[in-house]
Amino acid sequence: MSTAKNSSLKKITTHRLREMKERGEKISMLTAYDFSTARILDASGIDVLLVGDSASNVMAGHETTLPITLDQMIYHASSVIRAVDRALVVVDLPFGSYQGNSKEALNSAIRIMKEAEAHSIKIEGGSEIKESIARIISAGIPVMGHLGLTPQSIYQFGTYTVRAKEEEEAAKLLEDARLLEQLGCFAIVLEKVPAKLAKKVAEQLSIPVIGIGAGDVDGQVLVVNDMLGITKDFSPRFLRRYADLNKIIGEAVGNYVKDVKSGDFPNEDESY
C-alpha cells in the first residue's frame, strides 16, 4: 500500500469548518486510532478524524479512558496522521496531562503537535480549565472543546447518564460554551446532553458544535468501532450501527480456520 500524500485534495482546516457551519453544511467526524482504518475513513470523505482517548476502551480494553498515557496518544496520533490526505486530525489530551497545571497542559499539547504532527487537540472541561485552554491557544495550537458528559470525569459523575438536564447545570454548560468560544476554541463537542439545549448552544455560537448523543447540531461524531459494529457490548441510544463487522470478521476467521485445518488453504494457486 502506498503512503504517498495526495496534494490535489482540498484539506479540511479549522477555517473551513467554520465556513461549513456558516453555509449550513453538516460536519462528519469519527474516531481513528491506526493507519489502515484512518486511510479508509479519509478516502471515504470524512471531514474530521478524532484520535480519541477512547482508544483506552476499544483498543486496549480498559473500562474507562483514564489509563491511556500521553505517549500512547502520540503513538496512535502519529499512525493516523501518516494515513490522512484530507481530514482534519484532532487529538485528545489524555487524563492527567493538563488538569490543574496550565504549563503542563501546554507542554502536553506541544508534544502532540511536534511528535505526532497533529493538526489540533481536544480538551475536556469549561471554566475550570480556562487557563490551560488560553495558554495552549496562545501558543498557536488549535483547540476543540468538550462539554456535557466528559468521560475523564466519570468517577466524579458516577454515571454515564445524560448531563445538563437540570436548569443549573444547563446554564453552566451554556456559559462554558460561550467561554470556550471567547477563549478561541475552533469547535466544541457536546456529549450526551438534551437536544434542545445542544441546539440552543449551536445557535448561539459562531463556532461549530459537534454532537454525540446531543441531537441535530452542526455535526456528529461517533466511535468508529461502535458504528461499524466491531464492538457489541455498547449500545447507547445515540449509536447507529452502519455495519456488523463483528459478524463479518468472525465468519471470515472461522472460514480461514476451517480451511487451514482441512488443508484446503493454501491450494496450488496460493503456493510458490
Summarize the structure.
This protein has helices at residues 14-22, 35-43, 55-58, 70-81, 102-115, 130-138, 154-157, 167-183, 195-204, 224-227, 245-262; strands at 27-31, 48-51, 88-92, 120-124, 143-148, 187-191, 209-212, 219-222. With 272 residues, it is of the alpha/beta class. It has 2 domains: 14-241, Phosphoenolpyruvate-binding domains (TIM Barrel); 244-272, no CATH class.
| Arithmetic mean pLDDT | 94
Number of domain modules: 2
Q: Into which percentage range does the β-strand content fall?
A: 5-15%
Measured between the Cα atoms of the first and last residue, the distance is: 22 Å
List segments where confidence is low: pLDDT < 50 over at least 5 consecutive residues: none
Note the main sheet. 8 strands, parallel, barrel
Portion of residues within helices: 40-55%
Number of strands: 8
Overall morphology: globular
Q: Using the coordinates shown, work out and report the CATH topology of the largest domain.
A: TIM Barrel
Q: Number of DSSP helices?
A: 11
Q: Please give the order of strands in the largest beta sheet.
A: 1-2-3-4-5-6-7-8
